[in-house]
Amino acid sequence: MYIFDFVMHESVTLSLTGNATILSVNYFPPINLYEDSEIALLCLQTFNSFPNINENNNKFSIQVVDNENNNDPMVCFITLEEGCYEIEDIYQRVKKQIDAYNIKNLTELTDLKFDITVDPNDFRSKIKCNGILHFEIPYSIAPVFGFEKRVYEPYYETLRSEKAVNLNTINSIKVMCNIAQGSFSNHLQSHSIYEFFPKERTGSKLVDQDHNPIDNFAEALTIVLHIKRYGS
Questions:
Q1: Half-sphere exposure of 71 (CA within 13 A, CB side)
Q2: For residues 205 and 44, what is the distance between their CA atoms, to the nearest angstrom?
Q3: Which of its termini does the chain have fewer beta carbons within 10 Å around, N or C?
Q4: Cα(185)–Cα(198) distance, rounded to whole angstroms?
Q5: Are β-strands 183-185 and 159-164 bridged in parallel, bridged antiparallel, or unpaired?
Q6: CA 174/CA 193 separation, integer angstroms
Q7: What is the per-residue pLDDT for 6?
Q8: Which residues pair with 11 in a beta bridge?
Q9: Nearest Cα to 203, choosing from 176, 226, 227?
């Protein structure tokens, strides 16, 4: 027969570590707390490596303009690996794939050319391309660039996006804890204990503003919680 001497705790600190954004732990014997205990986040440590490019927004294609060739159109398909990108990173990955396509398929006179920059004043992207941009394809990267999901014919001048670039797919990170009560998200009850925006580039869980779990690329994550009696 086991006899446990349960002690009520005025204050306790819990540290949870793992490689996912959903962390859970079981304590035995259980931690006994007062009914008026409250919980707060003391510390959250992880890398800011939340991907802004994934399988839902990582594709587009460029069709070669060849008025003298009546054969099937030549198309360069671009696919980016999942990751956390700035515009310059995207440009370098796209350029690498276009260079490989040019070497394999084209002559110097019909080489595809592509360049993308961001206007520092209104944050719209500017694209120079001598091919037909197909942003209407499934899982298009168009919203990331600030463009609509449609076809863009080549121009001698720069193409400007209709909207600002959208590299920050996450505008709010929430720390949720299922033993916490008393918070609300709009009109619905929530288990949120902290909310913040990642300012740097690159039982408890991290979710975005829509309460969807965040992919943190399996980086190490540590959360420290403090539970104490109200007023202590």
A1: 4
A2: 11
A3: N
A4: 19
A5: unpaired
A6: 8
A7: 60
A8: 228
A9: 176
As given in the structure block, the two tokens for residue 140 are 């298009």
Joined tokens for residue 227: 């539970």
Half-sphere exposure of 58 toward its Cβ, with a 13 Å CA cutoff? Answer: 15
Judge if pTM exceeds 0.70.
no
DSSP symbols for the chain: -------EESEEEEEEEESSSEE----SSPPEE-TTEEEEEEEEE------SB-TTS-EEEEE---TT--SSPPEEEEEPPSB---HHHHHHHHHHHHHHHHHHH--GGG---EEEEE-TTT-EEEEEESSEEE--STTBSHHHHT--SSEE---SSPEEEEEE------S-EEEEETT--SEEETTEEE-EEEEE---S---EEEE-TTSPBPP-TT--EEEEEEEEETT-
Q: What is the pLDDT of residues 114-171, one digit of tens each?
A: 999 999 999 999 999 999 999 999 999 999 999 999 999 987 679 999 999 998 767 7
Is residue 196 within 8 Å of 155, Cβ to Cβ?
no
Q: In this structure, what token pair is assigned to residue 114?
A: 């592509």
